Amino acid sequence: MTFDELGLSAPLLRAIEEKGYREPSPIQAAAIPAVLSGRDLMAAAQTGTGKTAGFTLPILELLHAKGVAHPHRIRALVLTPTRELAAQVAESIATYGAHLPFKSAVVFGGVKPNPQIAALRKGIDILVATPGRLLDLCQQGEVKFSDLDVLVLDEADRMLDMGFIHDIRRILKLLPQQRQNLMFSATFANEIRGLAKTIMNNPLEVSVSAPNTTAERVKQWVHPVDKIRKSALLRELVVKNDWQQVLVFSRTKHGANRLSEYLVKAGVNASAIHGNKSQGARTKALSEFKSGKIRVLVATDIAARGLDIAQLPQVVNFDLPNVPEDYVHRIGRTGRAGASGRAFSLVSADEIKQLNDIEQVIQRHITREYVDGFEPDHEVPASAPLRKPRTSGQGKPAGGRGRRDDKPAPTSRGRSTEGHNRPRQKKRTGNSTK
Ligand code: AMP
């Protein structure tokens, strides 16, 4: 399958070629013809599958094909859960639409509204927005949707998790009834289906399962360590293994700040990215991380969601998330696009519950590896045996929320780990070559 065969016109094919894509990803091959046919679409696809181009390309094509009766009136609206994702979608629209005359704008909170209002007043064809700021601007009369043709809900599951349901419903009331609806979500758990029912008109459902689940693609280790020594261990791992680019997850904003300050004092270039940071600071940290100026980016789960950092070689869980599915999202930041990545979790004895919940969700025990000089005084208890996963697909595993991985990872007791049930058997990794 080639992009030509999908019915995209020359200006888009040129942009795709310039971007260097050779063939459509599975979600693109499924979604592009569906969107071009005018149907509503529910697509189960995670970040990393190429889903953004899966809706951006056909939307641009539709606008192009329909011609410009009223140029620069909003004809497509993309709602995203986070500022970072909104910015990335807007970037994709600019890239793929480079040879088309359409204008787009992005609006999200955390920055001054005036430049966004100025962009809207100039007239735009495609608007990318997070729900809260969009509602503010609608209430101020700055946004008109009378010409809207297409609505996209991107990462719909995340929007519900983040409590945007009421904002979304308010926005829906402002849109014309006659429109095409596209919904992208990592899973279609019952809540999402409930929302979809109220929005969609006979939608086509497509689902792409990655060739391997995240948990299979990513090599994973647990480093048992006392809580108090985690920062020192992280520094040791970064320096000894000469990691040049590592994304570190912290459960709290405060913890993220403290850790990045510690690393900077210890001579490792680091920065923190979380919801309390200004948008400017977040953008700067991300671009410095991408350019290699910053070696360690410490992020909270929400700040990290949707970040498109190509082929991150490794991620570290400085602490384990309370919601086990977040672990799958975190390690999904590495080993993208078929490359194999590595994920290291620094786990202290008090995190055994989180570890058990995660191992239950990914259906495997993670290899425990002790780092020389960092063996814990407080041993991490043995992992619990794995229970069989629920097989409904929409089930609610250990953490009480639906799996976001697209299929249950196969049970792999055989490949499981020396940590399980025998935590005292230590494998050391003092001079690791990782
Ligand atoms: P997304 O899932 O939309 O966040 O995209 C993940 C990454 O895949 C982005 O860096 C895209 O630039 C890249 N990508 C999207 N479509 C293709 C394609 N057809 N071939 C190669 N890379 C792609």
Please provide a written account of the structure.
It is a single chain. The chain is of the alpha/beta class. It has two domains: 3-207, P-loop containing nucleotide triphosphate hydrolases (Rossmann fold, 3-Layer(aba) Sandwich), CATH 3.40.50; 218-412, P-loop containing nucleotide triphosphate hydrolases (Rossmann fold). Helices cover 36% and strands 14% of the residues. The chain has 16 helices and 14 strands. A seven-stranded parallel beta sheet has the order 3-4-2-5-6-1-7, with helices on both faces. Strands 10-11-9-12-13-8-14 form a seven-stranded parallel beta sheet, sandwiched between helices. Strand 10, helix 13 and strand 11 (296-299) form a beta-alpha-beta unit. Helix 3 packs across helix 4 (83-96) and helix 15 packs across helix 16 (352-362). It is globular and about 70 Å long. The structure holds adenosine monophosphate (AMP).
Structure, briefly:
With 434 residues, this protein is α/β, with parallel strands linked by helices. The protein is 36% helix and 14% strand. The protein is built from 16 helices and 14 strands.
